Amino acid sequence: TEYKGINWDDLHATYYPRFEEAERSGDVDAYLFAMRDFLWEIPDGHVGGAVNSLLPYYWQETEGGIGIAIRETDDGRVLVNYVTPDSPADRAGIQLRAEIFSVNDIPIQDAIEATVPWTGPFSTSHNRRLEQLRYVLRTPDGQQLSLSYRNPDETDTTEVQLTTEFEYESLDFSYYDTVGIEAPSGDLNLPVEYREIENGFVYIKIYGFFD
User: Fold this and answer.
1) Where are the alpha helices (DSSP H) in 41-196?
2) Strands 165-166 and 64-65
3) Which residues pair with 163 in a beta bridge?
4) Which candidate, 134, 119, 113, 120, places its Cα nearest to that of 42?
5) pTM value?
6) Which terminal residue of the chain has fewer beta carbons within 10 Å of its beta carbon, N or C?
7) DSSP letter at 200?
8) Phi–psi pair at 37, nearest 5 degrees
9) What phi, psi does 195 have (nearest 5°)?
């Protein structure tokens, strides 16, 4: 508790009334949302709760995309690192490695910071940031989203108005736990590979811990 800097009295004062009101009104979803928000206040990825009943809300809020995934560089630029073929972004001419400047007239850094991912809570700030990058461009299906960007090798900034579509390809690509990991294909492979290198040492590659 001291390491995480959690003030349980403040959390109690904030969330206990929500639990009480949800119980008085018999509103199961309000209770689950209070539980979700309470858990998100605890900065530890091992914290979880029985909030599967809220999954329809998650799908509704995140099913719309424009077909790009983005990443942040060390110098603070936000670049497109994936474009879904025949997506709104692709049809608008947004290219791989395009730099994003704003979303809905909000500077991209501010928009990222204001994003609250459904995948919380997070033990570290960098994991939180990676998930904010994943979800900053997700909306309900059919929403208007304006984007300011500049393609590589171009000097002019382009403003474009896009309508989000039902698509998860770009969201799946951007999952930080799998991007760049060349795990062996198939469901029956072991999660560990190893090979002996010089001087008798063994090089071990661990693909995941769940298996």
Assistant:
1) 55-62, 88-92, 108-114, 125-135, 169-173
2) antiparallel
3) 144
4) 120
5) 0.81
6) N
7) G
8) -65, -35
9) -150, 145
Does residue 183 come out as left (phi exceeding 0), alpha (psi in the -120 to 50 range) or beta?
beta
Report residue 87: phi and psi, to 5°: -95, 170
Amino acid at 103: V
User: DSSP alpha helices (H): ranges in 41-179?
Assistant: 55-62, 88-92, 108-114, 125-135, 169-173
User: In this structure, what DSSP letter does residue 43 have?
Assistant: -
- Residue 133 tokens read as 């990058």
Given a cut of 70, is residue 124 above it in pLDDT?
yes
- Residues 117 and 123: their CA atoms lie apart, in Å, by 14
Contact 89, 67 (CB under 8 A): yes
Whose structure tokens read 């997070």?
122
What is the DSSP annotation of 37-67?
A: HHHHTS--TT---S-GGGHHHHHHHHSEE-S
| pLDDT band with cut points at 50, 70 and 90 for residue 211 | low
Q: Give the total residue count for the chain.
A: 211
